[in-house]
Design brief:
Largest sheet: 3 strands, antiparallel
Strand content: 5-15%
Shape: flat
Order of helices and strands: HHEEEHHHHEEH
Structural class: mainly alpha
Mean pLDDT: 76
Distance between the termini: 90 Å
Low-confidence stretches: 21-32
Radius of gyration: 30 Å
């Protein structure tokens, strides 16, 4: 076989994940023992070794096949999931497969759903739940105000400045005028938001004082 044909053959084997350097056990690249199907890049599948009973996951990469143990991947996924719920009590938390309720509670409390329920029930028994609820409401209200303030800043940038818009592939542009002057924005938007924020926080304070 000519050197040119040998090179072509080597490239074809590499694309199929069948080159010797990819199937050598001392490397992280591997080829499933009995799988001869042509795979697309990104395609995944699994096989169980008949002797050891170990199941491996395979993924066709661009030029090679990557092999991992299914158990190790599952374990890492579980570790990552538990680590993401940073406020769950690690000694009692049993959340191994987070669902939509767990993810929702994580965004609010940093804990899974069951841990939130356990903690709130404990606070009810201890007579501390109302204080906890008020503190949580104040925290949520403060965070909402902070996000709203950032939105006001972005709105001011968008409403009070002129900018150029590209109309076509030739690069022709058109200038879009500002919708408001900075003074108009301050009077119509910022002033109204300031009044709303003050009233909003006053209502929170009333609820807090009522439960003291």
């Amino acid at each position: 076989m000519s050197k040119k044909l040998q090179n072509v053959d080597a490239v074809n084997k590499m694309l199929a994940g069948e080159h010797t350097f990819q199937t050598n056990k001392t490397h992280t690249f591997s080829k499933p023992n009995k799988d001869t199907k042509k795979r697309l890049v990104g395609e995944t599948w699994e096989e169980t070794d008949s002797k050891s009973g170990i199941t491996h996951l395979y993924e066709q990469k661009d030029g090679y096949v990557m092999k991992t143990k299914r158990d190790s991947e599952t374990l890492q996924s579980t570790r990552d999931s538990l680590a993401s719920f940073s406020k769950c009590p690690k000694e009692t938390c049993t959340c191994l497969s987070p669902n939509h309720l767990d993810r929702k509670m994580k965004s609010i409390h940093g804990m899974c759903f069951d841990c939130v329920i356990d903690i709130e029930n404990k606070l009810r028994i201890e007579g501390k739940f109302n204080e906890y609820a008020i503190d949580k409401m104040k925290t949520n209200a403060t965070e909402w105000i902070k996000r709203a303030e950032k939105d006001i800043v972005m709105l001011k940038e968008a409403y009070t400045k002129t900018y150029d818009v590209v109309l076509n592939a030739d690069g022709k542009t058109q200038t879009v005028d500002a919708r408001m002057t900075p003074a108009e924005f301050a009077e119509k938007v910022e002033k109204e938001f300031q009044e709303y924020r003050e009233n909003f926080m006053q209502e929170i304070t009333k609820i807090e004082n009522k439960n003291d």
